[in-house]
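Hi, here's the filled form for the chain we discussed.

Project: internal
Contact: R.S.
Residues: 394
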Amino acid sequence: MAGVLSGGKLKDIVHVKDVVHITLVFIFPFISIVLLVVMFAAQHTDGLSFMPVVQIDSSRLDLYNGMYSLLQQGYSDMSSDNTVETVTTSTVLLIANLSTALLESTPNKVYSTFKKSCFLFDRSEVDDSSELHVLGGTVLNSSASLAAYCEDTRLFDYRTLLDNWGYSYMLALTETSKADDSSYHDYQTSIDAKSDAINRVPSLLVFVLVSQFVTLLVSFYIWNTRRHIIARANTTLLVLGHALSIWTLITFIVALVACLTMTVNLLSLRSMAEDDFASFGVKVKLCTNFFGVMWTVFAISFFTMAVWVGPMWCSAPEHDDTDDDDAGSAYDSDEGYELERFDTVLDDDDDLDFKLGRLERDHTVEHMLRKPSFSQSSSSVNVKNGSSVGRIII
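And the returned structure, exactly as it came back:
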């Protein structure tokens, strides 16, 4: 969006489209800053966060079905072509009793952020909350029926988290426990690579936050200086506008990398966890609040880039096409621009200067216009005489 130039200076009247553009330039970075501040505050709150990143839902945990399915699969794999072995009644009863005992020690849900994980228990299943303090975490009274225990962890090493919280039996049955060296080593290699990538996301989001703040300040400076977002008549602001458009493009790319890194890696981890726990009814979810805010910040970064890159790099350049003569007349911008170009040509062309000087000495412009047959071979040029324009036949 560029201001309309008239009389050698910017117009004082701001058009409706200018007001809309200015509003978008300010509102997009502001919203992005607010969302990112809220996101980081949620990640660093004490206790259960209102914006966790990932959740393990074991409220519908079915140990009986999970163990039965795994054991049945094991029997089927060991069966020969002529014999079919199934889980016996005594095995089923043993599984039922074991399931009842183990269900009492598992959390209903696990919420993870960048810094910590919180385990939610039914209060009726926690005999002595003081026992949780011994583990070095924080016990919270999140509601009348739930108790939450939080500890510092990394996102999202789910097997290490669950191994000490009643899920070790599931990990052992699915051959993903520490006892299975080969499988657990493969898991650790994968989780380390994904964790390293995920751990870089907060730094990228901090860059986006600072970048949006810088964009907001520079936008205010430009607006306050010329009362227009882009004043092409001012070389300094023109250069600053182009630099800011490139800056917003970089911000958009960084936001895209952060969102894709976070989403792709956690989707992969969710798939791994569901493969381990699907038969037990355990669900792994990416929390809507966090990812909704993160992708909203990405969208805002795109729109912030668009309101700068579009006008700065995609619009046609404008010219100061006014002619402040003593008579106070002004030409149309395009016509004035062409006349100025013609004046420049006349100044640089000695031959035309010679011809024009000879004609002005011998005849007046009006006399020449009344006698178009002065010369048989002619060429026409535009000249500017005071505030009028004539065509001279040479």
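Let me know if anything looks off before we file it.
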